[in-house]
Write a structure and sequence with these properties.
It contains two helices and no strands. The chain is mainly alpha-helical. It has one domain. Helix 1 packs antiparallel against helix 2. It is elongated, with a radius of gyration of 17 Å. The mean pLDDT is about 90.
Length: about 70
C-alpha cells in the first residue's frame, strides 16, 4: 500500500468493495480488480491485528497490563 492506511480506513474500504461485489452489477474485469484490492486490504487488516495482538501479549508478559480480576 502506498499510504499506510489505518485499520479503520482499510476495513471501511474493504466493506465498500464487498458491497460493490455483492451487488453483482459490475463488469468481470472490474470485479477481478476489486477482488484483488479487497484481498490486499484484508491482508493489511490481518497484519495490523496481528501486530496489535503481539503488543498486547508482550505487555501482559511484562506485567504492564493487569487482569480485570486484580
Amino acid at each position: 500500500m502506498s499510504k499506510e492506511k489505518s485499520f479503520e480506513e482499510a476495513l471501511e474500504e474493504l466493506e465498500t468493495l464487498v458491497k460493490e461485489l455483492e451487488n453483482g452489477d459490475i463488469e468481470l474485469n472490474d470485479a477481478v480488480e476489486k477482488y484483488n484490492k479487497g484481498m490486499e486490504l484484508s491482508k493489511h487488516c490481518h497484519t495490523l491485528l496481528k501486530d496489535a495482538e503481539e503488543v498486547i501479549v508482550k505487555m501482559m508478559e511484562d506485567n504492564q497490563l493487569k487482569d480485570f480480576d486484580e
